[in-house]
Amino acid sequence: MLYFDNSATSYPKPKSVMDAVSESFLYYGANPGRSGHSLAMKTAEKVFECRENAGKLFGISEPENIVFTKNCTEALNAVIMSIGEKGGHFIISDLEHNSVLRPLYELKNRGIISFSVAETFEGDFEKTVKSYENLMRSDTKMIVATGASNVFGTKLPVSMLGKTAHEHGALFLLDGAQTAGSEKIDMEGENIDFLCVPGHKGLLGPMGTGLLLTKRPELMEPQIFGGTGNFSLLPKQPKELPEMMESGTLNVPGICGLSAGIDKVLSEGEENIGKREAELACYIWDELDKMGGIKLFSSRPEYRTHAPVISFVIGDFSGEETARILSENNIAARGGFHCSALAHFKANTEKRGTCRISVGTMNSFDEAVKLIKIIASIIKNNNCLQNNS
User: Fold this and answer.
1) 63-86 pLDDT, tens digit each
2) DSSP class per residue in 200-246
3) Residue 378 above 90 pLDDT?
4) Which of 126, 127, 146, 252 is the most buried (most CB within 10 A)?
5) How much of the chain is in helix, strand and coil states, percent to nearest 5?
6) Residue 267, CB half-sphere, CA atoms under 13 Å: how many?
7) Local structure of residue 14 (DSSP, 8 states)
8) Which strands, in side-by-side order, build the sheet including 334-336?
9) Which CATH number fits domain 15-268: 3.30.950.10, 1.10.260.40, 3.40.30.10, 3.40.640.10?
């Protein structure tokens, strides 16, 4: 199968990642932080190594302020619920994933917080920042922004938004789901107070892994309560990170694989990876743009302004129908609404959705050429310009 669904999860995983997961069962099989024997200590050291790797990648010098989660959604919820429980006003973009929209909507429905949605302007970073600035209030607690839309690839001006938030006395939360591993993210240099990333996308780790990184640990509140391996005689959850947010046994095999994935990103360089992905995505976009029978909803995915994501449909088909047809022709892409209602309402694609092709670091030019040939053949030979619904 030609796999072009990397915005959902990267595949295939690098051999180094698969080896690290396999080796974890042989060499790191004890429960870290739960026992004092040598195997448990060795496992704990391996887990700490992953925190250090993540710190190197994202510009955070305190490994203890890096929390393991099961995905980016859990990390985003932990931050939003921690900051939002005391009320206040939030500003998000009109491209945010439901992992941001839904927890804020829940808090709003409980009467705890309010939030505003800033209009984004594709490729015009200054105008997008101004849109956020116009919504700032005296009680604004946090600006939340995705690094790039998971539907259309549109990037947001991360550094500028971090600066804006701090100038107005607000916090800045970055959702790095679509940019971590393919774009340089510097928490210190970009005024990022909280960074939430999946481990299984651009960081190339296994599914079931994610990270929450923070420069403001004192603002976090536990979302799950239980065993942390320390202070066991106290009934109250400890306040220190990372233990406060990591009750229960960690996903050690996943963390070992994630550490190996981060190693690969560090060795190759995020920008090198991102520019290579963008080049491939631009080739695909250009070829689709030449075809009759293709409706493109995303702009040309150039590295500065877009993640390597292409949203389109074939003929009058819906996004789901287009993805189904591609699947029948051995192509993995995602159709539908991509858990991102705001983005689809913004683009007026809420009725039929889109089919999304997303390029990853493991994709090759030969695969891209095959993809284009297959889509061209579908249009020519399978009567796909008429809706079969």
Assistant:
1) 999 999 999 999 999 999 999 999
2) SSTT---TT-EEEEES-GGG---SS-S--SSSTT-SSPP-STTGGG-
3) yes
4) 146
5) 40, 15, 40
6) 8
7) P
8) 294-296, 309-314, 354-358, 334-336
9) 3.40.640.10
